Amino acid sequence: xxxxxxxxxxxxxxxxxxxxxxxxxxxxxxxxxxxxxxxxxxxxxxxxxxxxxxxxxxxxxxxxxxxxxxxxxxxxxxxxxxxxxxxxxxxxxxxxxxxxxxxxxxxxxxxxxxxxxxxxxxxxxxxxxxxxxxxxxxxxxxxxxxxxxxxxxxxxxxxxxxxxxxxxxxxxxxxxxxxxxxxxxxxxxxxxxxxxxxxxxxxxxxxxxxxxxxxxxxxxxxxxxxxxxxxxxxxxxxxxxxxxxxxxxxxxxxxxxxxxxxxxxxxxxxxxxxxxxxxxxxxxxxxx
Length: 288
Known about the structure:
Number of helices: 6
Strand content: 15-25%
Oligomer: single chain
Distance between the termini: 132 Å
Order of helices and strands: HHHHEEHHEEEEEE
Radius of gyration: 41 Å
Low-confidence stretches: 50-70
Mean pLDDT: 78
Largest sheet: 6 strands, antiparallel
Shape: globular
Structural class: alpha+beta
């Protein structure tokens, strides 16, 4: 019993020497979950801001523009007045009416519009332009497509073939304002299922009074006027394709009479299938 006070004194001193820790305070479970949800939303919004928009990722390459594009191109056109053409006042009245109306259409800022023959839709394609002008001036039998117009003039006997590489050959001696100009293989890739492959047509305007430059009127996306690329219903330079071009100028035609019959173009038959090679009977080499 005499050691009991000593033991109690040692126990008290050990308890007082132990480090005191602050009580842990914990936030309620509901508050913790709310803060976690808020933090998650903030991270999601930040990630959405950094994510590129679909239109800004990679724009598709614009297809190469050509004589006959797939879609209507933005119009860039040129025009002239009839008085700007050499000898316009001496032309026959029907020719004057055709060219005067054709030139008026070049002033409207019309685009090259594939499949259209109606300027009121905002544009036409090459044969649609010629078709519309001739229809409105009494040539009601003119066909719609360039290859059909070629056949129309051929059957009427007014077509003149040209094989020269420049316009100063005898082949162009009969070319006069109002004639139709024809090209083959003027499509984007130089290919067509037409036979003959006539794919482009324009009006010949004659020469410019100021400098004698040969001119044409029509609808195109790629031809030039005064060296500048045009697109739409416009006045264009008349020049032959370069040797490197797939396109080729094949000739011109005086307009047939308004009563000339519309030709019937039969579709080209598919190529005949090649016969299968005949197989001979197998012969066995005699054994010795």
